[in-house]
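Practice problem 4.
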């Protein structure tokens, strides 16, 4: 297996009869504080790497399908409780601009294109879930105030299944890849608390979050209620449609 750096595709991949390319690259949004340098890293790891893949496709695999990811950050982060589908307007904050530029590069692909706008992916192997459950193990659960902000999530198994479905059925276009039942930040915390049996659930005020996290705090204090309208309309079925079902699988509970 060869590893690429996001700027040059390994030469050994050229000349192969590629039918599809899946592009998932991107530095972690919540991995560190958003300094100007890290915001540039977030940008380059998504926008520039997608440009590199698309240029490679033009030269070596113009007929191959491109399955790329974006994020529900496309819609912006707010306190609105209105549900958003694929036809929803783009937001105006940093993550929205990043997602728009990311998708614009993918749209330059020469062949068929699918873009999945991912919600928060819940996986037992890393990502957001280990951070989300930390306090609950000690009996004290938390959530970012005010609590009504949307938390649109998806189980990792459904992410993999959606990619397979898109390949097998030759889909094209933009799809929200989130579970069909988004919840609020507080509702998610309550669901986790119920399974852990914790006895305290505390909101974390926005001001200290901004002190600690800076601009990145918006990923916790604001959100969006995103619905996978196209996936549902076209017959995709979720293995974990509810947050309770997803959490039970993550915790190994029947």
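Answer key:
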């Amino acid at each position: 297996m060869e590893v690429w750096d996001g700027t040059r595709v390994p030469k050994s991949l050229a000349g192969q009869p590629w039918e599809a390319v899946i592009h998932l690259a991107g530095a972690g949004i919540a991995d560190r504080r958003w300094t100007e340098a890290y915001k540039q890293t977030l940008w380059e790891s998504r926008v520039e790497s997608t440009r590199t893949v698309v240029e490679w496709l033009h030269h070596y695999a113009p007929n191959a399908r491109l399955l790329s990811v974006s994020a529900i950050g496309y819609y912006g982060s707010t306190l609105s409780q209105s549900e958003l589908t694929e036809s929803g307007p783009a937001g105006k904050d940093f993550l929205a601009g990043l997602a728009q530029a990311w998708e614009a590069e993918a749209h330059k692909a020469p062949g068929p294109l699918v873009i999945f706008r991912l919600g928060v992916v819940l996986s037992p192997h890393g990502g957001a879930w280990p951070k989300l459950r930390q306090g609950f193990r000690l009996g004290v659960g938390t959530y970012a105030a005010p609590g009504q902000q949307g938390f649109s999530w998806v189980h990792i198994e459904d992410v993999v299944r959606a990619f397979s479905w898109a390949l097998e059925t030759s889909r094209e276009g933009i799809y929200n890849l989130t579970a069909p039942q988004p919840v609020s930040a507080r509702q998610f915390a309550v669901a986790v608390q119920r399974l852990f049996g914790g006895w305290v659930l505390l909101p974390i005020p926005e001001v200290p979050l901004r002190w600690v996290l800076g601009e990145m705090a918006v990923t916790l204090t604001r959100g969006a209620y995103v619905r996978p309208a196209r996936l549902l309309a076209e017959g995709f079925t979720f293995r974990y449609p509810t947050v309770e079902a997803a959490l039970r699988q993550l915790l190994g509970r029947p």
